[in-house]
Amino acid sequence: MNRQEHMREFLSQQGWDAAEVTPIPGDASTRRYFRLADGTRKALLMDQPQSAETPTAPPDASAEQRRALGYNAVARLAGADVARFADVARFLKYRGLSAPEILAGDPAQGFLILEDLGEALFADVMMKGGDEIALYSNAVEVLAKLHGQAAPAAMGDKPLFLYDDVALLAETDLLPEWYLPQALNREATPGEIAEHRALWKSALAKISASPPVFVHRDYHAQNLLWLPERQGPAKTGLIDFQDAVAGSRAYDLVSLLEDARRDVDPAVASVVLQHYFSIMRAQGTPVDEPAFTAEMAVMAAQRNAKIIGIFARLHRRDGKPRYLALLPRVWGYLTRDLAHPALAPLREWYDRTIPFERRFAGKDTA
What we know:
The protein is of the alpha+beta class. It is built from 13 helices and 11 strands.
């Protein structure tokens, strides 16, 4: 059977054979979603072909073994493992948060039927005039709830991987590998790559050694749904969390407040960050604000360097040039992040290697 026939067989087995199946526009992933409607019943279908992406490494794999398995294993990505999505969803629901309920699944085939949390993405609600401070404040209440405890050791029967230096450095490597050729019309030299990696390794070594927490990893306005009928942090619906790891408390905050796809007013970000600090104090898990500000700068710069590399890769390798239009915003974030004293050596590398006028290379760049 082809993929469509497998999907129809799965839906029939789960009692959804009469449902209207409507595709939801996708983004950069091989994963597809469909809305299911059968009378008053509604749900989502996740379709993730199991051979589409490289599998992840076992938990005890060395850095060399992970590199041998490919980028997903190095960067601690879930790949095509839909069971991982289901395990994380159950964990989040157990914590009282609004992840979709898993209604049915066939992980071996790569299908899940999920609760439909609606279409009110934060990005769309704010575009229509929704209160940014209210929405972002609720989103950081979710993070504070998760950050009140150390990361769990496992999700279901699988470990929650540490967002370690092997993964973080592999992500920053994407910028010289994919963006530097885009900007300078030449490959990065071995010396440039080695220096970039060494500077990042040094910067990451300086950040807080606080216990790792649950990290969603893609926590932004197009992965959050507004559910105003619910209470407290549950007003924020959570999706696209299958690549969750254990890492820095700063990571999801900077993912939210330095959003690659929409501008966040620095004044709004400041108010929201103070709200996060106040909640953390109130629940007895206060943050050392000066140290945390430095950690946020490092994690923000790391994430934005990764995104620049990914967007260049999507263009050059995958033929998706639309991501180039987002580069000026992300470079703006990265330039601002690099102004922090903790990142001075990296700032010098970027200023020397990729001149300012080449940081916004668009469709007209080879």
